[in-house]
Amino acid sequence: MSAGADAIANAVQVLEQYISGEVAEANALSQLLHLHQTNDKCVVAALAEKTNTVIANADKGSAAAAEAGNLLVGVARHLDTNAEAEVPAGASKAAKAAGAKAAATKAAAKSVSRHLLDHVLILTGGQNRAAKDNAIRAQGCSLVADLVLAVPGHQKAQEKLLEFASDRLPSIRERAVRGLGHVTSTPAVEQTLCARSGDPFMAVRSSAVRSMHVSSGTAAALIKRIDDVEACVRAELFRTLAREPAGGKQFGPAAFGRLCVGLTDRASAVRSAAGQAVDAWHKFFGSATAVLARCDVQGDEALGDAVAGALAARFKEEGIAAVKAVLSGSVKGDTNGIDDVCTALLARHAVTVMREDDRDELIDAPLLLQRTNEALGSSVTKPHGAFVLRQLLYIVAFVDFCDESSRRRAERLAEATLQRAPLTTTSVAPSANVLTMADLGILIMRKCTGLCKFQPRSAKIQALEAQCSARGVLLISDLCQPLQGAPEADASGSGDDEAGEGQFATRLSNRLQELNDAIEERLQRRTAFVAQKKKAIANEEFIQAQRIKEATTKNDTELTHLEKEHLQLKAERDGILLRVLAIIRSMLRWSGSDLQKDPALFGTLERIMRPVVSLPALSENVEVAAIAAISTFCVRDVVSAQTHWSLFLELMRAIRPENQPPMDSKYKQHLKNRSAVVASALADCALVHSGSNGLDRDEIMSAAHALGAVPFYARHVAVEPLCRWLLGLGHVFFEEHLREPVLELQWALGWMLVEAFKQTSQDLDDAEVEEEQRAPRAVATPANASHAAAATKAARQRGTSWVQRPAPEPVPMEGDKNAEDEEEEDPAEAMATASKLMQFFGLLPKLPGKHSAPMLSLAVESIAETGLWRRSVLLPHMVGGKARWRRGFSWPQLFTFAHERLAADMRFRLWRCALQLCISDPALATYAEVPFALVQVMKDAPAGAAGLVREAVALGADAAALSPLVSRLPPSEKTKESSDGLLPRAEAKAAEKERRAQLAELGINCDSWAPAEVQTPDIMPAHHRMKLAKGDKGGSAAAKKRGADAGPIVPPSLYQASAPAQQVPQQQQQPAQAGDAGGAGAKRRRCLSKTKDEATAHLPLRDADLD
């Protein structure tokens, strides 16, 4: 016994000297290794004793304790690594190998790290227990995370790290997820790492992403980090992907493309890490073309172009090989032509990144034109022929033609492209990077004429522009020949001889209208025949029923022939009209001509575009294309814009539900597409023609009024036009608002700010997630796995039950008016809109001028004054019998965002509108977390905020919710003098009702955006309960009153008053004091009754902790 104690004392002494630095590391580790070989248990005991000291003294010096803990972990690893396996001398090779294996197994079972880890787990409290002191808990987590690297399969260590991963301290969570990266991967570990990858703290997210393994369970969480605001997190994402290149198969085409675009990230560290990941994928998949083939290059062409450009710049040799493959004619776009698509796309971008000398040496212009003509001939018959043709046209538009023969061939190619190529027709403005067939044809034609996009306007250039426009209009005339018909057929009354192209589609349109009337008549006859036949059968007039049946058959035959003819004529007319409108739009887009001096291009408005809009039986897609062409023309010409201004405003008003009959989803989408074109035209015309000789101020403001009054279902069509209008003409709005409030634009600022902080499909609240993660987990063990396998086998043998329990569906509770609209919204579209609006409002206060910051303040005030703030109220949705809390947007995030970007005088206005909400509806303001938002920005409170808070409490605001503000704000400040003070509750509600009525007169239905009344929920969110428990450890008067009353549970305030006991009314103190004796015992009984194992149940340390 004394020998063992001496050995432990010697080991402890060596450890103390090593930790204090008295002995060199090499000497100390050699001594400990010798002691371990002599008596391993004594060294383990010494390490455990020093670990006790380190953890016990962690709260006194965290840095020293952390360093000592690292040294102890290093000692354990060194002893495990250098432990010698005993092998009998003179034994055979097989015996030596067996002995070495047995010794290694024995050493692994009795490793120092494992024993030390078991001891640390005991010191940390075991499962579901932990020290209250943060430093001690952090030191224990650090030791477990470091030791698990040597013992990756330790089950209890994994469970403890999962528990630490949900700790309230970010540093502990970071160390826990760092340790989880070294344990055996299980579904519970993956789930925890995925949850921590979205942690609010950057270090936790970074460590979680670093610890992940790429699998089907983690792919969704990993792809979300591509949009992380911190560059280090994005860099860790790509380093994780580079370690496991085979994990690239877990991502879909769209997600994989977004990952490859990391090569163009704004941060150099992310670009470097993304390069490592792409190099690993290039080696794993075999080539750059194979990497590009895994991306969605056709579904999202902008994303495909970005990926192809990055790959072409990184793998230049493969880009040159792709160009040679295109010129050789091997790229044709056949049925198995996804490789051809990627090769053509890579070749196009390889040509772009080449030097001019290399490009001229590599590309043979006549051969390129030949391959392009061949692709044009097969573009309709082959599945990917149109895509391959577009890539070749890109290359043709980029290559220079030095001889006249090549120039003429390119000019004929451009004309053939405009006449025969399958044109891409879109209802919205084309992207600057993705060009249509018509754009490419016009660009090649302009290049052959000697024109480019940016050239100084001179007489020579104007003459060339007019010549190019004339060639385009002649092509349009050739396209319209099939639609004009025989002159004698329309000579009387139609005016084809005089108008030329002006009535080129009248004949077919009139015939389509006749067919529509005939089809409608046949449909009505069918309905009548069905009713007559039923009546005849009921009256037993079977001969009459047979006659009706024969008439029905004849009617159906006629209807079939009419519908077939209608489809043929419609396809013929719409195909040519869409092609003509696409050519005109491309000519207007790329032309730098003065329209007043370009008779051919200017005449297209009167002779083509206007007649198309007035055609009978007009298709929806043709209508949108015609309006898009007219809009482009109006942006170029101010007179045309003034002429069509009333039309644009009327089309924007037509999208309102009150101006339309009940609409189906298809017609509603058509209205949204048409309104998107008109909204963009209004904003662009207002910006371009806002000078002295352009639109007047009333016309400019009318555009903003129309954009701001869009209905709820079509709000996305006005987001970008409104942002452009406000950035360019915000000073006009502010000047007009100072004269007379412009309610439509202030309303628009409010709902745009709400959309910026919108929370789509809000699942659990953050605190509720933490509560669920702290719950005990069913860890997968071999026994559990065997039981699950046996149950599955038994179920397979007896067959599945015919009774299928449906999956739980979310049940919205009262107060959620927009539940259906929110579910129909595309989450990707909502995320993109929120990102754009965040950039807009982040830039808005930085604009020069005095109008920029007040516009952000007006947005917040509009949300408070119109009732939009009720969308931020937390409302429960029952899912699977459990309440899930959702809200439309986060008021604390919105308020903090605006508060940080405004000056002190403007912050006072924010405080006033927030406190007005606390007066108008105290209970609902608590569920919207309005008091919590004020507490968050309390350090930067403006002058007079304390007096404003006291005035709000006097007017009926929740005193308990505002108690942190009352107690911490300087009491000496006086309320800021202002003519617009806080209003009493009745006056505030009347003012909001009046504002909503005024907006209704302007065509804005506020009820579709936010309800006027929301019922206060009867239950409380989990994180509100936790804040209540933290702020009211002794039991507040309100909480005790709830326990004594027999009525429904009233949700308490977010914050409980920390005032002295003498401030509580006497009638509330007496019942609470009387119930103290029995209340603690009752709570203890409730705690024991909710515990499954009463033997392991333990009470809190003191009664004050029971609440």
SSE layout:
Blueprint: H1 2-20, H2 25-38, H3 40-56, H4 62-81, H5 93-109, H6 112-123, H7 134-147, H8 155-164, H9 170-180, H10 187-196, H11 202-211, H12 219-224, H13 231-243, H14 253-260, H15 268-285, H16 288-293, H17 301-314, H18 316-328, H19 338-353, H20 356-362, H21 365-377, H22 385-398, H23 404-420, H24 437-449, H25 459-484, H26 496-499, H27 506-538, H28 542-590, H29 599-613, H30 620-636, H31 638-653, H32 665-688, H33 697-708, H34 719-739, H35 743-756, H36 766-774, H37 782-798, E1 811-812, H38 819-824, H39 827-843, H40 852-866, E2 875-879, E3 882-886, H41 891-900, H42 904-920, H43 922-927, H44 930-936, H45 945-954, H46 963-968, H47 985-1001, H48 1022-1031, H49 1037-1044, H50 1066-1074, H51 1076-1089
Antiparallel strand pairs: 1-2, 2-3
Helix pairs in contact: 1-2, 1-3, 2-3, 3-4, 3-6, 4-7, 6-7, 7-9, 8-9, 9-11, 11-13, 13-15, 14-17, 17-19, 18-19, 19-22, 21-22, 21-23, 22-24, 23-24, 24-25, 24-28, 25-28, 25-29, 27-28, 28-29, 28-30, 29-30, 30-31, 30-32, 31-32, 31-33, 32-33, 32-34, 33-34, 33-35, 34-39, 35-39, 35-40, 40-42, ...
3D shape:
globular
Characterize the largest beta sheet: strand count, sense, and whether it forms a barrel: 3 strands, antiparallel
Summed up, the helix count is 51
Radius of gyration: 38 Å
In the sheet with the most strands, the strands line up as 1-2-3
Q: How many β-strand runs?
A: 3
> What would you call the structural class?
mainly alpha
Indicate the low-confidence ranges by residue numbers.
105-109, 425-430, 486-502, 761-823, 973-979, 1032-1107
Task: Tell me the strand percentage band.
Answer: under 5%
Q: What share of residues is helical?
A: 55-70%
Average the pLDDT over all residues and give the rounded result.
Answer: 80
Distance between the termini: 51 Å
